[in-house]
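Exam revision sheet. Question 4 asks you to relate a sequence to its structure. Input first:
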Amino acid sequence: MKKYALGVVLLLATPFLTLAQVYDICVYGGTSAGVITAYTAKKAGKSVLLIEPSKHLGGLSAGGLGQTDIGNKYAITGIAREFYRKIGRHYGKFEQWTFEPHVAENLFKNYVKEAGIVVWYEHRLLSVNKKQGVIQEIAVESSNNIGARKLVKAKMYIDCTYEGDLMAKAGVSYIVGREANSEYNETWNGVQLLDKHQFPDGIDPYKTPNDPSSGLLWGISTDALAPNGTGDKLVQAYNFRLCLTNNPTNRIPITRPAHYDSTKYELLLRQIAIEKPTHINWGVMHIADMPNSKTDINNKGGLSTDMIGANHNYAEADYETRKKIIQAHEDYTKGFLYFVGHDPRVPSHLRQQMLEWGYPKDEYLDNDHFSHQLYIREARRLVGEYVMTQHNCEGREVVQDGIGLAAYTMDSHNCQRILVKNPRTGKLEVKNEGDVQVGGFPPYPISYRSLVPKKAECQNLLVPVCLSASHIAYGSIRMEPVFMALAQAAAVAATMAIDNKKAVQEINISQLRGTLRTNPLMDGSQAEILLDNDVTPQNISLQGNWQKITTGGKYAASQLINTPKTKDLATVRFTPDILQRATYDIYVYNPNPTGGGGNPGAEADQTKTAKTLIRIKAGSKVTEEMIVSQNQINDWIKLGSFVLERGADNFVEITNLKAHGIVVADAVLFVPR
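Answer key, structure tokens:
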């Protein structure tokens, strides 16, 4: 843990050319969370300043991560969920979780424009003036070292950067790296030598195989492997999430980049020689399809797009050093793509597959068609009023002040590439260390206290991105839609603290939770009604034989299935409490009964019935709809628009009538028009 007294620096004596500009709330960092924070605060009636060090809004969501890491869509609420609904409307769907970078960035710009938010682009934090636990004002400078420094005085400050820069300069406690398992009695923290994104056995580490005197290949550390669970200062690897295209009319060839060094990819050749992949997808990288013939490419395997070990100094580095680290990652990534497509030692079938892809002409127009956002998976983490741990993820400890949910696996990418002795041969081989992928748990609540520093350290700062969590718990929480949901909660909390003249640690959390529940879009509109067998069991009635299962693409914790073995009539009835007569669009969730994912677009489970009969009662009228169960997997299927009368005399009923396979029943959504 670090508590940096030096981080609280007094404003420099150099004269400023402008007086302090005053706002209710200052949001530092125009990430996806930063935009949603600023939008929420402005919709709540506060004056807001959003400061972004770069030229872009949206962070990683606008920087290539189009294959949204969901875990479980039930966890995504409020304006965050509406973001994916807006993405869906762009593509002609109800909601969509895969998208092109420019579509996301334009949407974030629209949020700012709609709310009339003041944005200072290309300004970075210089110093923080804090007195008696309260930030008085901050100083920022041009990211290009051009122009005057500026002062900002706000009642509340919200750090939405991936790095936690405002948090650090405010002098609150934080940590960089991995805690030992013993710190919080965890089992998946610290050093972990496992089998994911790993080299196969037999990879020689030396430039000349079997010759230690020739030296180690690029990227291999000489650090010794510490015992399992040991804490250290290492940070999981960063990479760029790559948007490429195979559309010839929109494709720019991947050419030899500046600073190209083919020796950085020698380990890839040795990996390929043993594994013999038939395709680059899942062979040397993970290619996820995006709309309009584009991709979101992520790391896959022992040597891929992750630049393991190159980021350990990033979190605490100054701006110029960070710039060099980012450039090194860009050079490595462009070199990797060029190497796979052009090096004659790469098998020809892999080279030909790589040459099908190029940079998209219509993305990143001001950055040579390459992502402007490095994937900062983890940097600093707050040590606040409460620390989220593995126990929260796995449900052994459940907080009572939850203001958002997380649902993704406890996920850490590798932290180092080292030498490990093969016990069978006695030879030193190359292995990656640090990758952990442990899931199997339902959505769980995130404590409000994990967003705030200890009260004695700062009373007007919230941190929804670099929040207070152990390394391995952060690996589950650190997803873009979760950041956006926490950002909305942080903004509402900040407005409450202002209105009630209280420290952020003293607000009424029940009131905060109520606002998030009853005014989820911060516009006073009627909230939609979600009925789910886990969330609202009082509104669900079962007839016949139904089995609750926790696998597949379930919404929330489980789904209900009826198998063909049961011939008797089986129904699940969802009865909403309608407060006023209105027209609702009704949707039924269509999960796969098998598998472990909840991402839309998965292949249908062939054991599912091809069609499902659903009865809808709206007032006195009952209609029947036969939906195609093999389409829109792990997604919402619209049943239609219905006028529902006030009270509890309306229902949606899923039946096994005319079914020829497994019938699934999970969640029903009523969206007021």
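Marking note for examiners. The CA atoms of residues 184 and 284 lie 36 Å apart.
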